[in-house]
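*** Residues and shapes ***
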Amino acid sequence: MTYPRLAFALVLSVTALSACGNEGDTRAVDPAASDSPSATSPGAAPTPVPDGQVRTHGLVTVLDAGEGPELCLGAIAESYPPQCGGPALVDFDFGDVGAETASGVTWGQYSVTGTYDGTTFTVTDSIPAALYDAMAEPEAGGLEPACDDAVATDAEMATPEDLDATLAAASALPTYATAWLSNGTISVAVTEDPEGAEAELRKTWGGLLCVTTVERTDVELNVINQALQVALGDQLLTSGSTSPDSLDAQVVFDDGSIQEWADGTWGEGLVRISSALEPVSS
């Protein structure tokens, strides 16, 4: 089965940002792609299978569209009823609370524990959301400013038109990597010469500005992300850039071997792997 995949990096062109002209957690990417980096065909990724019981990380959706319940670990279409897919569940019961049914589809939110053989999840325990006792997890936020000491130099040079002009100027920098707007601050990442970049951007922007350096551009990260998706296949649930110089990817299960493979392929820390299923502590 092919599970839904969601790339969770919000990547917009300078033109798209110009259309907004206001604050938000948005990023600008140079629309003129540079030459693709090398080493974009990684070797085969490992496919670890847990040797004991595992559980979902908090509540997840369980859905039965008529062919048996599935554990939805990836993207969920916001329709009614919802649409999603994942490993088939064995010995699962929706119970008397927590499930909805519409148009022949039954679904609900559950914390699920059991064993996983790489294809099928055999349930030993499930707790519906209504009975799940856990501290609320914080919502994932957008990109933060690249520095916490950004300063403004001229409040009159911080109009929406100035913002558009500055983002356009940033994308034209010879060392430009990426840019984003958050908490009233324009953050621009370059591969070298941040002082020169800031001096150039101050010609059009007097508001809060932070210029930082990164090793890779968004173009390079996008190429690596595409290679990552091909290499991991159905193991991959989500992948994308949530920080200026790295990729985050969630897989169904990782015992550390996928992270080790990613570090050996692209360098330590560039791709950060998380696991949707976690071992149950003894």
In short: The chain has two domains: 1-34+145-282, 59-131. The first strand starts at residue 6 and ends at 7. The helical segments are 14-20, 160-171, 194-201, 218-232, 257-266.
